[in-house]
TrEMBL record:
It comes from Mycetocola zhadangensis. The keyword Ligase applies. Pfam families: AMP-binding, AMP-binding_C. Residues 475-550 form the AMP-binding enzyme C-terminal domain. Keywords: Ligase. PANTHER family: LONG-CHAIN-FATTY-ACID--COA LIGASE, NONRIBOSOMAL PEPTIDE SYNTHASE PES1 (EUROFUNG)-RELATED. Residues 33-424 form the AMP-dependent synthetase/ligase domain. NCBIfam families: PRK05605.1 (NF004114). Gene3D superfamilies: 3.30.300.30, N-terminal domain of ligase-like. One of its GO terms (molecular function) is acid-thiol ligase activity. InterPro entries: AMP-bd_C, AMP-bd_C_sf, AMP-binding_CS, AMP-dep_synth/lig_dom, ANL_N_sf, ATP-dep_AMP-bd_enzyme. It comes from the Bacteria. This is Long-chain fatty acid--CoA ligase. The lineage of its organism: Bacteria, Bacillati, Actinomycetota, Actinomycetes, Micrococcales.
Length: 565
């Protein structure tokens, strides 16, 4: 018998939160169709002030699905999305699923090397991409042929006046336009309007089943290089239902969600692409987080629900305070992907009068598995308690068959309908984290109080969490050691005062090499997206090692913390 079989955390649930959710029987396509039917005339998406109703969203999904069908997309095919937050992202996501295809999400700011690694792994032959990255994909080597590239100019979803302003012959307008679109179509690519030009998908086309694979979400997992977490329609719908159950004060058809988190990230995908859509919310989309854009949108349609990360909450409340903007419409805010300092909670709740609670999860749990209750039983400084229909155990990380008692530190193990089925084409890595009978090893060391509140103590895995994104130290080390002056490198995460970590590196130089920190950073940027590039680089004579020669990153981290102090 497990120490937590009696689920002591249930007493902390907010009123009206069920202990178990009703498990989904329909796919994400059934979910969006239901939302379109029930909320047809209500606004679904807003982008720079231009809105689209649920009825219009449903019609555009049907046209995009027909366009993809004509490009040869069939059930089980992978369709790659390389898009920032924009209406086309939402449409493309559900259109691919409507055909029974598997969506693969990508960060559009990734370098060619990073994207190529993922495409080599999943083998998608059709890609829907931001026009700023289509040239990169078209230049993939001959062994990675694309059947079709669909090019998306996100400015086409903006109001006419905004598009017109971007064409003004002034420096600011040119700079804004360059940031949003390449202004050209890659040779041989299909444009988004062309994709939508064939009418709606035929109704007799087969629909996906709830058990079908819906998404490959790339993650570094608990160790190693990025790999595709396989998430089914069941996993993603279940997590959306768990989220809805967790916040009983939400009003269907009346909430305003702000999409400041990237939809290509597991956190933004579930909270915005599925959760928000399932309840008929207005989803206000931002291509990237920008304080000015968010506060401007707030003046028109204030957010009522804001999923974000700690630095975003702090930036918004500071800016709103300076500009005397009232944020009191935001009733609920959910923070995840990095630690949430209590001071940030206090400042945010003073500014809004609403609640800010921390959640916990990982890509492998679709992603949310644990959350602080929405109410007086919440406990800042902890990540909360297990979601409805979610179970936990605490195990000895060296011997998973041994369970730890409440109050003893150990590795968190989870089970629930949101837990993934494994990594794409990686049976060994899947077996390493899936213990059988639905249990998932998280790689996080936690302590659990007698009443079920979970506190993160440490990580077995050595991933760095920066800005809500996971960074594999090994990937950054390989990039550093590609520099002609660097012999060895060890990469670690250093804590930031506002939560999360900063990527930092200790390097050993080759004999006679002269160190130029900025030059090393610039070199890394050729192969790594910006958030992975080390913000601090320390030159050392040697790296600490174990008896078998393994670099001891924990000791490197301690050395760098002392150097910083």
């Amino acid at each position: 018998m497990s120490s937590f079989d009696n689920k002591p955390w249930l007493d902390a649930y907010a009123p009206e939160v069920p202990h178990e959710i009703t498990l989904p029987t329909g796919s994400l396509v059934d979910m969006i169709d239901d939302a379109v039917s029930r909320f047809r005339s209500r606004p679904a998406l807003e982008f720079f002030g231009k809105s689209m109703t649920y009825g219009e969203l449903g019609a555009e999904i049907a046209r995009a699905a027909e366009g993809l069908r004509r490009l040869g997309v069939q059930k089980g095919d992978r369709v790659a999305l390389v898009l920032p937050n924009c209406p086309e992202h939402v449409v493309a996501f559900y259109a691919a699923l409507r055909l029974g295809a598997i969506v693969v999400e990508h960060n559009p700011l990734y370098t060619a090397r990073e994207l190529r690694h993922q495409f080599e792994d999943h083998g998608a032959r059709v890609v829907i991409a931001w026009d700023k990255v289509t040239d990169t994909i078209a230049d993939f080597p001959a062994d990675l042929p694309m059947d079709a590239i669909v090019s998306v100019d996100i400015t086409q979803s903006m109001p006419f006046g905004t598009r017109l302003a971007l064409r003004l012959p002034v420096k600011k307008a040119r700079s804004s336009r360059t940031a949003l679109t390449s202004g050209k179509v890659t040779r041989g690519a299909t444009t988004w309007p062309q994709l939508l030009s064939h009418g709606a998908l035929r109704k007799k086309h087969p629909r996906p089943d709830v058990s079908d694979l819906a998404l490959l979400q790339y993650t570094s997992g608990t160790t190693g290089s990025p790999k595709g977490a396989m998430l089914s329609h069941f996993n993603l719908r279940a997590n959306a239902e768990q989220g809805r159950a967790w916040v009983p004060g939400l009003r269907e058809g009346n909430e305003v969600f702000y999409g400041v988190l990237p939809l290509f990230h597991a956190y933004g995908m579930t909270l915005c692409l599925t959760f928000a859509m399932s309840m008929g919310a207005r989803l206000v989309l931002f291509p990237k987080f920008d304080v000015d854009l968010v506060l401007s949108a707030f003046a028109k349609h204030p957010a009522t629900f804001l999923p974000a990360v700690p630095p975003i909450y702090d930036a918004l409340q500071h800016a709103a305070k300076r500009r005397k903007i009232d944020l009191s419409g935001i009733r609920f805010a959910i923070s995840g992907a990095m630690s949430l300092p209590v001071a940030v909670v206090e400042r945010w709740e003073d500014a809004t009068g609403g609640l800010l609670v921390e959640g916990y999860g990982m890509t492998e749990t679709s992603p949310v598995a644990v959350g602080n209750p929405i109410g007086p039983t919440r406990r800042p400084g902890t990540v909360g308690v297990p979601f409805p229909s979610t179970e936990i155990k605490i195990i000895d990380p060296e011997n998973p068959s041994v369970e730890r008692a409440p109050g003893e530190a150990g590795e968190l193990v989870l089970r629930g309908p949101q837990v993934f089925s494994g990594y794409w084409k990686r049976p060994a890595e899947s077996a390493a984290v899936l213990l059988g009978d639905g249990w998932l090893r998280t790689g996080d060391i936690v302590e659990v109080s007698a009443d079920g509140f979970i506190t993160i103590v440490d990580r077995v895995k050595e991933l760095i969490v920066t800005g809500g994104f996971n960074v594999s130290p090994s990937e950054v080390e390989l990039a550093l050691m590609g520099h002609p002056d660097v012999r060895e490198a060890a990469v670690v995460g250093l804590p930031l005062a506002g939560g999360g970590e900063q990527v930092a590196a200790a390097v050993v130089l080759k004999p006679g090499a002269a160190f130029d920190e900025q030059a090393v950073r610039d070199f890394c940027r050729r192969g790594l997206t910006a958030y992975k590039v080390p913000k601090r680089i320390l030159v050392v004579d040697d790296l600490p090692r174990s008896l078998i020669g393994k670099v001891l990153r924990r000791e490197v981290r301690e050395t760098m913390l002392k150097a910083a102090a």
